[in-house]
Amino acid sequence: MQPDDNNPQDEFSESTRLVHDSRHHRGAISPPIYQSSLFSFTDYDSMIARFRGESDHALYSRVDNPTVVELQEKVAQLEGGEACLAFGSGMAAISNAILSVAGPGDKVVCVNHVYPDTYRFLRGFCQRFNIESQFVDGGSPAALEQALQGAKLLYLESPNSWVMGEQNLQQIALLARKQGVVTMIDNSWASPIFQKPLAAGIDLVIHSASKYISGHSDVVAGLVISSRERISAISRYISPFLGGKLSANEAWLLLRGLRTLPLRMRQHHESALELARRLQSDARISRVNHPGLDPLPTSILSGYSGLFSFELSEGIDIPGFCNALQLFRMGVSWGGFESLVMPAISVLNQAGEFNSAIDFGVSPRLIRISVGLEDTDDLWRDLQHAIEHASS
To answer: Tell me: domain 261-390, CATH 3.10.310.40, correct?
Structure first.
């Protein structure tokens, strides 16, 4: 998004802009929740102007609720995009974005170790509509270049799920553009604070806003950020008919979460990196997957989130380790104030077809850890206690 010469707020830092709302609502510090399904017009001409596209007057909350619009404007600015569209879940954002680019007969290339439900969507749902998907090692430029031949869309996730592998986003964006392939990335791991994919040349950015943008484990939501043209293609031809809208109340909660996002991300960064380093030096841990331990020279990350993984050695009982934890809870998702663990064995045993953990060879001894906002030393003692308890 280009700076507006008439808006002095463009001179402020990112953290300051997130704390202050762009609109002032009769002096209210917190923006109102427009809990209304529809918005009326004062006269005939104003209603006709809205339907002709000559007015931005709110019409219907499935399309343009004012609280949701304010969230979209703030996130677009944060990601450096021209426009943003909010959804009722991360998967709604992912599916709407993919379907805005790919159609019957098209080919989608996707990196390995992608979010499990993205994998199922591509392998299952899209296949039903004759959209082909091919999965490739995102760390191999040669494999990517070959796979992109004849493709319509390249779907990225960097760092990716379970193993936290990065891709060279600038190089990949150039490669895809040369072949006329649209690029899309799930940027939930880094948040807009630590990674700006649009600036690296990626076409569309997706967030599961349920994670760090919310930060309080009380919202399920998704976001797509891109150019006005690409967001318009979603908002005009895809999202109104699939109905995955975000409610005004959840948009308000996300606006609340944005105010503390930079502070929270700094704490996640510091605590998780420290725990990863300590685990790496523990002989009972066979592997630690954290991009900060061996940074990629071409990385555009400016920091690291609280999500990483490690593998317990054969001498550690996984159920015993999980059950001995006191501060870390067992649960899906991540990005909240609380610390969580999720053993890979749980998803390796998940019922149903198209299991990405199996297909991508995730180790059954891997533990995914989401480091929250608790004291780092307390979390370390909890991990040490659980490892010792589960040691044979």
So the answer is: no
Contact 335, 299 (CB under 8 A): no
Angle, helices 248-280/66-79, rounded to nearest 10 degrees: 30
Name the token pair of 376: 């780092």
Q: What class, spelled out in words, does domain 8-258 have in CATH? A: alpha beta
Give the start-end residues of each E strand in the chain: 83-87, 107-111, 132-136, 153-157, 182-186, 204-208, 222-226, 285-289, 307-312, 329-330, 340-343, 366-370
Distance between CA atoms of 246 and 250, rounded to whole angstroms? 7
Q: CA-CA distance, 165 to 157, in Å (whole number)?
A: 9
The rounded radius of gyration (Å) of the Cα atoms in the chain is: 22
Give yes or no for a contact between 170 and 200, defined as CB atoms under 8 angstroms apart. Answer: yes
Position 24, amino acid: H
| pLDDT, position 3 | 47
- Name the pLDDT band for 386 (thresholds 50, 70, 90): very high
Distance in angstroms (rounded) separating the CA atoms of residues 278 and 250: 37
Tokens of 391: 């040691």
Average pLDDT over all residues of the chain: 94
In the chain, which segments carry CATH 3.90.1150.10?
261-390
| Residues composing the chain | 392
Measured between alpha carbons, how far is 221 from 209 in angstroms, rounded to an integer?
5
The dihedral through the CA atoms of 98, 102, 104, 105 has a sign that is: negative
**Which amino acid, one-letter code, is at 385?**
H
User: Three-class SS of residue 206?
Assistant: strand
Closest CA to 136 of 120, 121, 127, 119: 119
Neighbours of 347 (CB within 10 A): 19
DSSP 97-138: HHHHH--TT-EEEEESS--HHHHHIIIIIHHHTT-EEEEE-T
Strand partners, 136: 111
3-state helix, strand, coil in the chain (%, to 5): 40, 15, 40
pTM of the model: 0.93
- Strand-pairing partners, residue 225, are 84, 205
How far is residue 65 from each of residues 72, 90, 154, measured CA to CA in Å? Answer: 10, 19, 31
